[in-house]
Amino acid sequence: MASSTSNFRAALFGIITLLAIVGNTLVAYVLIKGRKILLKNRATYQFILNLTISDLVIVVFFCPFEFTQELWGLWKFGTIMCKVVEYLQISASGTAVITHALIAMERYRSLAHPHLPRLKEKLVRQMIALSWIIPAIVSTPFLYMFQVKTSVDHQKAFQGTCTPFAIPVPWLDKCYEACEFLVMFFSPCCVICWCYYHIITLTIINPGEVQIPTAGRALQQSKKRVTKTSCLIVVAFLICWSPTFVLSIWRIASGTESIYQGHVLYEIALFGGLINEATNPVIYTTFDRNMTVGQSIGCCRQRICDSCLNEGTPSNQQSTEQNRLSCRASNRQLDFVN
Fold this sequence. Notes:
The chain is built from 13 helices and two strands. It is mostly helical.
């Protein structure tokens, strides 16, 4: 019978899971409903949709099983489901982290280099596909490593937990944990920190380095919101995923079985990742007006471009061309700040 502590953990787990499902479903609905405006040739929103899908994969296909294990204190779904469910969770978590890095890269590119052309649709699709393929390949050994571990409690009752077993060769086990940590967590984290550090530097510390075109007033007014969003993304990501980083480093040093299902660090890392999945919709939509009033983007952008073009004299073709480039840069920067 589950203890009161297990019941509390299960209740907390259920609440966070419900919030994550509702939040990510709403974000996916907004993006899909406004796909002709938000998703067409706009890489950032395609990446956000990909992040939302990866979060939904976790909360739909992993959380119900983990909830019952937290509630009952044992795994009741057999070895095959243990392997598949945990594999999906680890793989989708890797996709979420990599997608965070892709969003950071695109936002930095849009702000620091606004005159560059948008990413081609084919390239964006390839990047999204790789964000699923790479974690799926790297996580494959977990299909072998996860097993249902049975034990006997003080009441002589058999208990089963779905937990990873180490690869029989110790050095190979630690090497795999190091590779998995490097590819799926450490490298994307470095990209995220580097991109958002430079975003904050460009918008606050050295605002003169940002190439602000004709629509500069709107961009200037958005700087505080840009910086606040960037800081929230970095802080939430680091806080929520730092237990997973510690867990991975611990396993690299001591082996996979040193952190098992039910271990304090395992539970903290699990809840940290789930909390990040629940807060992602809040962070990415609270300060993004396009996510709530996407239907007005077209007319707003038209007004911006019209004001840009009206400032050039009809007889001066060079000035008109500069204004057109300014409009394109404004729109790309507005992709970032809105």
